[in-house]
Amino acid sequence: IYMEGQGTSGWVSFTEESAEQPTLMTATEQPYYAAEYVDGYILGVDTEGTIFTMRAGSWDRRILGELTLEGERYLALDMAFDYTTKTMYLLTDERNPKEGGHLVKLDYLTGQLTDQGLVSGMDSYGLTLACDNQGVLYTVDCETGGLYTLDRDTAKASFVGATGYLPQEQQSMMVDHKTNRLYWAAYQGFTG
């Protein structure tokens, strides 16, 4: 997270009651595009496409590899962990306009990547990624704001419904696994 006014990126901590005043846990030189917390560890991808893991609290990065598919480096948009299969997924940015990003399985112990394919069936490309308690993956279309499910094996998207928001810039999505409720950190520019 970039700490406004402090000029640094890093990992922060806050409670629901003190979200407006986060505590900087550790500063980092390399900003991150996506991360997910699993069993005491943070897995993430930085802005250079480097895949890493670290134990929450120690903050020492261990490099697992690079987000490279067919010799091309990709940037990550979001990550989600499927607790039903113990599988980490990540969604890449698209390399070419209207091509779509890839849905990728990430072995969170070794860094090995398995490309599930280009996400298809959307007006544009998926911008977010979340997984519910039944193992259903969700994404939001970057141009229309439509909510979609993603087939884990084929990367085919299926329309769920309109959200009423038109996303801009980086987004994030997650599921509260206690309630199975989907949350989206939606940013649509200066109007929302």
Give a short overview:
Helices cover 0% and strands 47% of the residues. With 192 residues, the chain is mostly beta strands.
Provide structural commentary.
- With 192 residues, the protein is an all-beta fold.
- The strands form 6 sheets. It has a 4-stranded antiparallel beta sheet with strand order 4-5-6-7, with no helix packed on it. Strands 10-11-12-13 form a 4-stranded antiparallel beta sheet, with no helix packed on it.
- The radius of gyration is 16 Å and the shape is globular.
- The relative contact order is 0.12.
- The protein is built from no helices and 19 strands.
- The N terminus is likely disordered.
- A hairpin with a 4-residue loop joins β18 and β19.
Strand order of the largest sheet: 4-5-6-7
Largest sheet: 4 strands, antiparallel
Q: Roughly how much helix do the residues carry, as a percent range?
A: under 10%
Structural class: mainly beta
The gyration radius over C-alpha positions equals 16 Å
The termini sit apart by 20 Å
Principal-axes geometry comes out as globular
Q: Which spans of ≥5 residues are poorly predicted at pLDDT below 50?
A: 1-5
Mean pLDDT: 83
Please state roughly what percent of the residues sit in beta strands, choosing from under 5%, 5-15%, 15-25%, 25-35%, 35-45% or over 45%.
over 45%
Order of helices and strands: EEEEEEEEEEEEEEEEEEE
Number of strands: 19
Please tally the helical runs, counting DSSP H or I stretches of 4 or more residues. Answer: 0
